[in-house]
């Protein structure tokens, strides 16, 4: 099952299939912002952005049960993390994890922006995986209340 | 209580961010199907996450739109090509052919055979002429030798 495979019987989207350019016009800036958070190198980020919106996987978003935005977020992150991993393989950088800081912001940054899995984050910060997942809830709760 | 625990576990946020494994995806799927409250929360958190990322949106350079347009057209073209092939194959399977016997004594050959035939023809003529020339030359020389031999004998 792919990352973008829909959950059946989820929240149905009323509109029909939309083209890559229509999606780009609507979510291009958001996707570019996400990619830049993960991959700050502008040229690489632009290449990833192009690959996101010309990817056949984007068509899978037409049958995605949630909003197109959520699907684009997942796809943009997946592509950017993939590019980041390739870049790290060529030019490794220092480990960004700090054992003392297990704040929701840090956990979100490690998982979403640095591309670590929740299990890896838990291992790096010496906390449980459920605490990592709970931090995501806390992070967006803080955002909502801010 | 169970619903609240599930919501607070953060698995829904992780799922929307693409950070869940297969087992967790199945669990989310099951819970969303079974529980209306979770489904509603998922819609809310989805809108929060979208709003959050829209807050950090950066307008990309306008040239990228054109590149995406070109690339997606290429993708569509490739897809159409594949679709055509598939369709053609299906049509081939469905088409009934009639056995027609062709009563024709001619054959078709590649166009390169024409210059090849011309070259072989010209070369054969050259060799034939050369052969005849040397043959008659040799015969003539033979006659001359015979003539000289008889003259020498007469002189003796």
Protein model, in words:
The complex is a heterodimer of chains A (146) and B (156). Chain A is an all-alpha fold. In chain A, 64% of the residues lie in helices and 0% in strands. Chain A has helices at 20-38, 42-53, 57-60, 68-90, 104-113, 118-125, 129-145. In chain A, 38% of the residues are buried. Mean pLDDT of chain A is 81; it is low at 1-15. Chain B is mainly α and 156 residues long. In chain B, helix 3 crosses helix 4 (36-55). Chain B has helices at 2-8, 11-16, 22-34, 36-55, 63-94, 113-155. The chains are: A mainly alpha (146), B mainly alpha (156). Chains A and B meet through helix 1, helix 2, helix 4 and helix 7 of A and helix 2, helix 3, helix 4 and helix 5 of B.
Summarize the helix and strand pattern of chain B as letters: HHHHHH
The general outline of chain B is: rod-shaped
Structural class of chain A: mainly alpha
Main sheet specs of chain A:
none
Q: How many helical stretches of chain A?
A: 7
Order of helices and strands of chain A: HHHHHHH
Q: What is the subunit arrangement here?
A: heterodimer
Helix-strand makeup class of chain B = mainly alpha
Sheet-strand content of chain B, in percent, reads: under 5%
| Termini gap of chain A | 36 Å
Q: Care to count the β-strands of chain A?
A: 0
Helix content of chain B: over 70%
**Architecture (CATH level 2) name of the largest domain in chain A:** Orthogonal Bundle
Topology:
The complex is a heterodimer of chains A (146) and B (156).
Chain A: H1 20-38, H2 42-53, H3 57-60, H4 68-90, H5 104-113, H6 118-125, H7 129-145
Helix pairs in contact in A: 1-2, 1-4, 2-4, 5-7, 6-7
Chain B: H1 2-8, H2 11-16, H3 22-34, H4 36-55, H5 63-94, H6 113-155
Structure keywords:
heterodimer, A: 146 residues, mainly alpha, 7 helices, disordered N terminus, B: 156 residues, 6 helices, rod-shaped, transmembrane helix (chain B), membrane (chain B), transmembrane (chain B), Anti-sigma factor (chain B)
